[in-house]
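Give me structure tokens for this 266-residue protein.
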Amino acid sequence: MPKHLVPKLLTGAVALFIIAGFLLVDSSAQKRRRRRKPSAPQITNPAIYQPSANDNANSNNSGDTSNASADTAPANTQTARPASEEDPEAMKKTIRTLSGQVDKLTNKINQMEESQRSLVDLERLSRAEGRSSALNTELRDVLAKQADLEARAEDIEFALRPENIERSTAGYGTTRPEELREQRRKQLENEKERVRKQLDQLAASRTRLEQAIATSDAEVERLRKKLDAADEAAIQDAKTKAESEGTSSSESGSRPKPLPSPSPPQ
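Here you go.
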């Protein structure tokens, strides 16, 4: 046998051996699968529960307690009725207490509002007094200017007299004294007209200021009367409150105390 055939034969023999081994393993696995059979389920009937004597007793007791609770419910409602009958008195007392608290709060709110109004009136009074003072100062200035202008107007009237014009121009050396006197007269007339216009303006300002001062003074007087009335009302309310508190305290002190009930004989 040639040498190159020996390795081929060995390789083929090993391959046949491996294939035979796989076939044997597969056949044994199929046999095992065929041998396994599914197990049939076993059906068992459950045991029937038989109640004992203790359970019957417990059920009877529960029924009795439910009946007893149903019977005691009306009794509880009957015992609760007297308490509800006493509620109106407590409600009246509570209503009186709340009503008193509401009255107190209302009085406090009214006092706060009165105080706020008083503060506003005081501020308005202060402003009105300041405005009146400023207007009076302005009026005094107008009167002083008016007095000065009136005095100047009188001087101009005096200077416009012919003899005074001639006397004022006599010191000038001129060949035409008539023209000089006429020029002086026109100068005085123009100044007189200017003073008159200023006096008219001051008279209008005086009238306006006097009206404004009258209005401001009336406002000041009204606010003062209002504040005085508010102060008097506050004093009167304080007196009335003090008298009512004194009366209530005296009545509570003069009430006779209830005598203790006699104890029953032993």
